[in-house]
Design brief:
Beta-Lactamase; 434 Repressor (Amino-terminal Domain); 5 strands; single chain; alpha+beta; elongated; 282 residues; 2 domains
């Protein structure tokens, strides 16, 4: 005798199946909320047994097969192109957040999305928060260029963020400024990890021309960057202890913490904390 718990073992453990199920429910709910009049269809006042648009009507609006759309709502494993998803988003009158959710659930990139958040601006709230922080803190954009920092960060990273620092991009500072090799303890290992973390982030927008130009420039100017980049190392961005040799304060050990305003933000807030209240000097 087969128990209910063992009848379909993959149902609860297959993430892709669960994602397709959620996507189908999402599409069905938004289709049912959209009236024929909202969609600009004639005969919108015709009596209907079910609310909203029919599957066939939505498929016609999107220029896709009714059968294919039905399978999508049913959570079947069907191939879907970014262009078809974009037409679905328009036909369903999805908001920006709803459209982003649609593409995230299908693991596709929105063809109309700005490249890597290039049209985005630093959140004013984060820039304000920088000034209120007493620990060193700075704000990076999608290319890891500092777009804001507080006085404590300027003192800590004088060669990068100080008034005399000419290179605000973190990767260019680390790989091209000779002073970075003395300031960052265990420089080569930190540089390798930094580059692997950057590669992981750029994978979200491989067509980003600004990121491509940054990498191309560093490859021309730094043989070590080229060698490390060609290793294809990939790491998730992580915090942890960072060790510096400050020209005025000597050896410092600080704990790095990185925060993002939301999962889609192109900006990251980085803070350097005194680890567990211990003194910064070693």
């Amino acid at each position: 005798m087969t128990s209910a718990a063992t009848a379909s073992p993959t149902t609860a453990t297959d993430p892709s199946a669960e994602r397709r199920r959620l996507l189908g429910s999402f599409l069905r709910r938004h289709r049912e909320r959209l009236t024929p009049a909202d969609a600009g269809l004639q005969g919108g006042s015709t009596r209907r047994r079910t609310p909203g648009l029919r599957r066939e009507e939505l498929a016609q609006l999107c220029g896709i097969s009714p059968t294919w759309y039905s399978w999508l709502e049913q959570g079947r494993d069907v191939s879907v192109s970014p262009a078809a998803l974009a037409r679905l988003a328009v036909a369903l009158h999805l908001t920006g957040a709803e459209r982003a959710y649609l593409f995230e659930m299908t693991r596709k990139r929105d063809p109309d999305a700005p490249s890597g958040g290039s049209a985005d601006q630093p959140p004013a709230s984060l820039l304000t928060a920088l000034g209120a922080m007493t620990v060193p803190a700075y704000l990076l954009d999608r290319l890891w260029t500092a777009v804001g920092w507080n006085p404590a960060a300027e003192r800590l990273f004088g060669g990068w963020l100080g008034s005399g620092g000419g290179e605000r991009n973190l990767l260019r500072y680390v790989f091209l400024d000779p002073a970075a090799r003395h300031f960052i303890q265990d420089w080569e290992n930190r540089a390798r990890r930094l580059l692997a973390e950057f590669r992981a982030e750029t994978a979200r927008h491989p067509e980003d021309s600004a990121a491509q130009a940054l990498v191309a420039g560093l490859r021309r100017e730094s043989p070590l960057f080229t060698r490390m980049w060609d290793d294809h190392g990939v790491l998730e961005r992580e915090g942890g202890l960072r060790h510096f040799e400050h020209p005025l304060d000597g050896s410092l050990t600080l704990e790095q913490l990185t925060l993002r305003p939301n999962s889609r933000s192109a900006y990251a807030l980085v803070m350097l904390l005194d680890p567990e209240g211990a003194g910064q000097h070693e």
